[in-house]
Design a protein that fits this description.
Distance between the termini: 18 Å
Largest sheet: none
Number of strands: 0
Oligomer: single chain
Radius of gyration: 14 Å
Number of domains: 1
Shape: globular
Amino acid sequence: MSSKVLFWDFDGTLGHRRGGKWSSALLEALHEIEPDCDVTLDDLKPLVSSGFPWHHPDVAHTHLHTPELWWSSLRKQVIEKAYSKRTRLDPCRHFQSCS
């Protein structure tokens, strides 16, 4: 059975999340798929505070010109930076990120 997840974020423009911004949503999703994971919000925040397209609004991201390219780039960042470095998750198994 395959599950799909959509992360939609404007950091407080559409709503407020107790405990923080989109990093809280990532942490909640992580604990949903790996309940015994001991990652905290303090662990996760530094891993998602740089490296994403919106961290450099002055740079054109013309290489991310289709939805597939945009989400592929974000998926790679989230999996490699936020989850895989601090957890025992296998990105291929949990996120179908391997081809």
